[in-house]
């Protein structure tokens, strides 16, 4: 987490940096700061608690003249959010300033050694160790900033994306990365750096994604130079961005989350485009077609993911088991990586991650590769680390997701998983062609059906007013609707701070049923599927105990309508395709409850969009 930006070039350095911080605020927002090298060869650092808006207010009466600068928006790991712990950090002698995204695992050891050498520390962060170490190496070896950064990084264990500037040298920024993302933008007379491409796209489409342990030397009037930690020059692969500025703006919506919920018909169209062909008869996923042998010889599929992506993975299990007759396991990446997993070359490990940067998912991928498994990635952010670390994969192509709560990425992930299961089934002949045709045709209709479900918006907004002050919620579902219940509960808790539990409906009687009373609303996802009669029983069990029920049902349902307090009707679909449709009303319900409570839905407290720390 944390976002970093750097700029060296013409024009207003401060403006470029602050605008960039706003774009990266989704990565963390407990404090922000900026370091500017001014024409007199001084560095001014301004930093403060809170969001980037606060930083702007703080800077109103400050000297903002600069030739280059670096900036940071923080999600605290080492040291509480405070002005002192905010980045950038100065070296002890005030000569060097640095911003950092990542965690330095051996910081304590390094810090103790530096203190012994007389170094004084001014914050509780692991980051300050980096800048002090660079200063120490520079003074001891009497070397350049570049050499000091390289040598210091050789002593560091952990993850870093850093940008470093020094006094008296407004013409150079040194940047480096390992396990945390960093992109360099190459403009005509300016160079940019950032944690992702969103602060850069407005100025140039030409970017370079730094590789692990690569150091970028950004100099005024000179071409970009990349070296490894041993100072050997490495290749510069320039990529052209496909991102557009309009994708990064709210487009008339009050919040990114609402915009992203309403974008789903078009994001799902983009996700399906060119992949479901011949009027639904064939599913074309290059990642599968190019690796037929690996899929044919697979004996097992193991999903690794976190959070919402883990919920999508759970749906992937149902889809692959149903369609491909393969055993499937679903693991939290954070548990998997420390659980001595038994893997071999017959396993396909599928990593799901919107950001493509989640530290635990990346670590799980590395383990799977080591064990000889075939690793397949499902990501959204093009050029991020996960697609680069996997053998093959599929992008969900839903465009930048900026709201911290995942919405369009979830439906995109489920869509890709559905197409993935179908294309494996096609390859292995585990599903009759007529069934593939039927599902393929439905998939092509999904964007229009989502558009129809979004018409429930006003009804859900009214409904939300009744339940805004509930203190607990239960979300129940069975089969394909169980992961939807988990996802609905996560959406509510993360943006409204209401406690919500997702549960398999039949498990309720083994404990959670004790919680039910008139103050504990239940959201029950109950479309017409092969478990419908069973879930009707669960709906009755809740009602019999005085619980209020909001049910997501198939259009025309009469039975549940007579029992539940409120129903939200969604179009009839084949069972395996219902999750995409039934998750939309739950996204809207969470959004409106959080808005009624006055919460910041795009930036919920304590969270960050891209979890690049353990
Ligand atoms: C919840 C949410 C998180 C992410 C999780 C994994 O709305 O967004 O739970 O799903 O942090 O992130 P990615 O998918 O980027 O690996």
Mean pLDDT: 95
Oligomer: single chain
Number of helices: 20
Shape: globular
CATH class of the largest domain: Alpha Beta
Q: What small molecules does this complex bind? A: fructose -6-phosphate
Spatial gap, N to C terminus: 10 Å
Biggest sheet strand line-up: 3-2-4-1-10-9-11-14
- Helix content range: 25-40%
* CATH homology superfamily of the largest domain: Aminohydrolase, N-terminal nucleophile (Ntn) domain
Task: Give the low-confidence spans.
Answer: none
Structural class: alpha/beta
Query: Approximately how much beta-strand content do the residues carry?
Result: 15-25%
CATH topology of the largest domain: Glutamine Phosphoribosylpyrophosphate, subunit 1, domain 1
Let me know the number of strands: 26
Main β sheet profile: 8 strands, antiparallel
The value of Rg in angstroms is 25 Å
Give the number of domains.
3
CATH architecture verdict of the largest domain: 4-Layer Sandwich
Describe the structure.
With 614 residues, the protein is α/β, with parallel strands linked by helices. It has 3 domains: 3-247, Aminohydrolase, N-terminal nucleophile (Ntn) domain (Glutamine Phosphoribosylpyrophosphate, subunit 1, domain 1), CATH 3.60.20; 249-449, Glucose-6-phosphate isomerase like protein, domain 1 (Rossmann fold); 456-596, Glucose-6-phosphate isomerase like protein, domain 1 (Rossmann fold, 3-Layer(aba) Sandwich). Helix content is 37%, strand content 22%. The chain is built from 20 helices and 26 strands. The strands form 5 sheets. It has an 8-stranded antiparallel beta sheet, covered by helices on one side. Strands 5-6-7-8-12-13 form a 6-stranded antiparallel beta sheet, with helices on one face. The chain has a 5-stranded parallel beta sheet with strand order 18-17-19-20-21, sandwiched between helices. A hairpin with a 5-residue loop joins strand 5 and strand 6. Helix 14 (408-428) packs antiparallel against helix 15 (433-453), helix 15 packs parallel to helix 20 and helix 16 packs across helix 20 (578-596). The longest helix has 21 residues, at 408-428. The protein is globular. It starts with a strand and ends in an 18-residue tail after the last helix. The structure holds fructose -6-phosphate (F6R). Fructose -6-phosphate binds next to helix 10 and helix 17.
């Amino acid at each position: 987490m944390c976002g970093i930006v750097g700029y060296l070039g013409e024009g207003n350095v401060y403006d470029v940096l602050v605008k960039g911080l706003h774009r990266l605020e989704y990565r963390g927002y407990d404090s922000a700061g900026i370091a500017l090298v001014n024409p007199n060869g001084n560095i001014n650092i301004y930093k403060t608690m809170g969001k980037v808006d606060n930083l702007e207010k703080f800077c109103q009466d400050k000297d903002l003249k600069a030739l280059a600068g670096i900036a940071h928006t923080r999600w605290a790991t080492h040291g509480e959010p405070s002005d002192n712990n905010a980045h950038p950090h100065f070296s002890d002698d005030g000569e060097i300033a640095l911003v950092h995204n990542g965690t330095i695992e051996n910081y304590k050891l390094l810090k103790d050694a530096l203190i012994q050498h007389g170094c004084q520390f001014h914050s509780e962060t692991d980051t300050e160790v980096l800048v002090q170490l660079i200063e120490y190496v520079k003074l001891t070896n009497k070397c350049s900033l570049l050499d000091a950064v390289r040598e210091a990084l050789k002593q560091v264990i952990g993850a870093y994306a850093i940008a470093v500037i020094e006094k008296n040298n407004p013409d150079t920024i040194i940047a480096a990365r390992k396990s945390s993302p960093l992109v360099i933008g190459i403009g005509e007379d300016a160079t940019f750096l950032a944690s992702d491409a969103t602060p850069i796209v407005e100025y140039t489409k030409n970017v370079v994604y730094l590789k692990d342990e690569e150091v970028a030397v950004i100099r005024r009037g000179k071409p970009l130079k990349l070296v490894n930690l041993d100072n050997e020059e490495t290749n510069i692969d320039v990529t052209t961005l496909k991102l557009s500025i309009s994708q990064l703006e709210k487009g008339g919506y009050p919040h990114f989350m609402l915009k992203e919920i309403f974008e789903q018909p078009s994001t799902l169209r983009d996700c399906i485009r060119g992949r479901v062909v011949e009027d639904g008869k064939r599913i074309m996923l290059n990642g599968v077609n190019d690796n037929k042998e690996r899929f044919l010889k697979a004996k097992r599929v193991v999903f690794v993911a976190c959070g919402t992506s883990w919920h999508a993975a759970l749906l992937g299990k149902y889809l692959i088991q149903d369609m491909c007759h393969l055993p499937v396991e679903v693991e939290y990446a954070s548990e998997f990586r420390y659980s001595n997993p038994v893997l071999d070359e017959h396993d396909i490990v599928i990593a799901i991650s919107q950001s493509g940067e989640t530290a635990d998912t990346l670590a799980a991928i590395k383990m799977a590769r080591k064990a000889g498994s075939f690793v397949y990635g499902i990501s959204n952010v093009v050029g991020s680390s996960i697609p680069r670390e996997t053998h093959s994969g599929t992008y969900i192509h839903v465009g930048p997701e900026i709201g911290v709560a995942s919405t369009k990425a979830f439906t995109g992930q489920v869509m890709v998983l559905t197409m993935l299961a179908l294309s494996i089934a096609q390859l292995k002949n585990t599903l009759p062609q007529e069934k593939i045709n039927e599902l393929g045709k439905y998939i092509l209709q999904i964007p229009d059906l989502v558009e129809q479900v979004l018409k429930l918006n006003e009804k859900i907004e009214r409904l939300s007013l009744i339940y805004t002050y509930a203190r607990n919620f239960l979300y129940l579902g069975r089969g394909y609707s169980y992961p939807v219940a988990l996802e609905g509960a996560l959406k509510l808790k993360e943006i409204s701070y209401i406690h919500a539990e997702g549960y398999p409906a039949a498990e309720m009687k083994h404990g959670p049923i004790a919680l039910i009373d008139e103050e504990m609303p239940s959201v029950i996802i109950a479309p017409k599927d092969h478990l419908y009669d069973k879930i009707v029983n669960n709906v009755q069990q809740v009602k019999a105990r005085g619980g209020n029920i909001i049910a997501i049902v198939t259009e025309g349902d009469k039975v549940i309508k007579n029992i539940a307090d409120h129903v939200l009707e969604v179009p009839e679909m084949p069972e395996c395709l219902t999750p995409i449709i039934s998750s939309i009303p739950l996204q809207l319900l969470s959004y409106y409850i959080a808005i009624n409570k006055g919460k910041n839905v795009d930036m919920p407290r304590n969270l960050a969009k891209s979890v690049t720390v353990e």
